[in-house]
Each structure stands twice: as C-alpha cells, then as structure tokens.
Amino acid sequence: MGVEWCGMTTREIAKSVIDALPEDASLDDIMRALYVRLKLEGAERSIEEGKGVMHDQAKQRLQKQPNDESTH
Predict the structure, then answer these.
(1) CA angle, 53 then 54 then 55, to 5°
(2) What pLDDT, in 10s, does the model give residues 3-53?
(3) Of 33, 24, 23, nearest in space to 13 by CA
(4) What pTM does this model have?
(5) Are 52 and 46 in contact (CB under 8 A)?
C-alpha cells in the first residue's frame, strides 16, 4: 500500500510526489499533491499516536451534528 516515507528527507518525499504526477502537471497540481501528502502524513502520525477516531465513533459524531440544510 503506497510509498514508504520513513527515512526519506523532505526533498526526497517532494521529488517522489512530483515524479508520480503526469508530465503535463501544472504547478497547481504539484502544490495540491504536496498538500494532500502533507495532510495524509499528519493524519497517519495522529493515528499512530492514538489520536484517531474509530469509524463507528466518527459516524456517531456526524449523526449528532445538526443538518446544515435545515438551518437555511
């Protein structure tokens, strides 16, 4: 599953993300891909630290939130 990031420098990670994009990728595409990678890395770290929320817990939290459509 995916690329192993452990032991890679930030520059190596960035190059890997960019190399995975199509040749005609725009600067916006590159920035978006790097941003997504950064967010996923942070989420993975949070889960490893026990800060994540189980799927069932997340569903329960979402069900308790008021429906945005009904407030308009």
Answers:
(1) 115
(2) 456 688 889 999 999 999 999 999 999 999 999 999 998 888 888 888 888
(3) 33
(4) 0.63
(5) yes
Q: Using CA atoms, how far apart are residues 6 and 59, in angstroms rounded to an integer? A: 31
Q: How many Cα atoms occupy the beta-carbon half-sphere of 18 within 13 Å? A: 11
What's the distance, CA 52 to chain centroid? 13
Instruction: Give the model's pLDDT for residue 4.
Output: 55
DSSP string, 9-41: -HHHHHHHHHHTS-TT--HHHHHHHHHHHHHHH
If you search the block for the tokens 């199509």, which residue do you land on? 22
